[in-house]
Amino acid sequence: MYYRYEGLEILNRVQSPYNLFKKLNVFLVRHGESVSNALRAKLKSENVLLDEDQVIEDAKIDLTEKGIAQSKDIGRKLNNYLAANGIDKGKTLVLVSPYQRARATYEYANEILQFENNSDNVFVLNALREQAYGAFHMIDREIKKRKYETIYQNCQKNTISYYKPQFLGESPMDVSTRLNTVTDFIEKMSKQKDIQTVIIFAHKNVNKCMLMKILNLPAEFYDDFDYEENCSVLNICHGKYKKIEL
C-alpha cells in the first residue's frame, strides 16, 4: 500500500507489508550509555571538540556504570512486560550486535531475563553492528569540515541523511541493505521454530534502519525520527508500530 509521507504521523497508520512481521512482536533495544556517549556529553558541556586523538575503536566501546545500571533496569522492565503480556520466552528469538556495548547490554539485561545463552534462541549477528563512520568516526562536524573539507562536502551532496555516505564508511542505506541478512535469518528461524517474539539488542542507527525496513518507511523518515535515550525500546507488534510503557 502506498502512503503519502507527511512526517512522523505516518507511524500511526502504516503497517508492515511483510507477512513475516505481521506475525511477530519485535522489540528493538538500544544499548545502555557507552563510554563514547559519556565522552561526547562531557566535551560538549566543556565546549571542546572531539577529534582523532580521542577516538575509541567502535567495536570495543564499553558501557559506563550508568549504562550497566540502565541495562539491568531494561532487563527488569522487559521481563515484567513479557510476563504481564503472556509472552513465551521459549518462543522468543534474541539477536545481539557483536559490538561490546550491545553485547554487554544484553548480558546485564539477561541477568533478569534469563535466556539460555547456549540455546538456539540467542544469536550474535555481525550484520547488527552499528553504522560505520569510517574516517569520520566520532569526529565533530567542525573538525570534519576543516580537515576533510573536499571529502566532507562531497559526502554532503545528498540532502537526505539516509543516502549520505561516510568517508571510508557507510550510509544508513548501506546499513539497511546489510540488515537484509537479519530479516532473512529471522524468517529462517521462524520456519524452523514457532517464533512469536524477536528481541534485538543493537544501536541507535541500526534500530532506526530496522524500524524503517520492517514498516517500509521512506528515506525522509530517517531525518525526522530521532530518539536519544540509551536503553530505549522500539516495538513493532504484528506489523504495527506500538508505543509501549515499560
Helices and strands, with pairings:
Blueprint: H1 19-22, E1 25-30, H2 35-45, H3 65-84, E2 92-96, H4 100-113, E3 122-124, H5 141-147, H6 149-155, H7 172-178, H8 180-192, E4 197-202, H9 204-215, H10 220-224, E5 233-237, E6 240-242
Helix pairs in contact: 3-4, 5-6, 7-9
- Here the CATH topology of the domain at 11-39 and 63-130 and 170-242 equals Rossmann fold
The succession of helices and strands, N to C, reads HEHHEHEHHHHEHHEE
Give the overall pLDDT as a whole number. Answer: 89
* N-end to C-end Cα span: 31 Å
Shape: globular
CATH architecture of the domain at 11-39 and 63-130 and 170-242: 3-Layer(aba) Sandwich
Count of helical regions? 10
Largest sheet entry: 6 strands, mixed
How much of the sequence is in beta strands? 5-15%
**CATH hierarchy, class of the domain at 11-39 and 63-130 and 170-242:** Alpha Beta
CATH superfamily label of the domain at 11-39 and 63-130 and 170-242:
Phosphoglycerate mutase-like
- The value of Rg in angstroms is 18 Å
Low-confidence stretches: none
Main structural class: alpha/beta
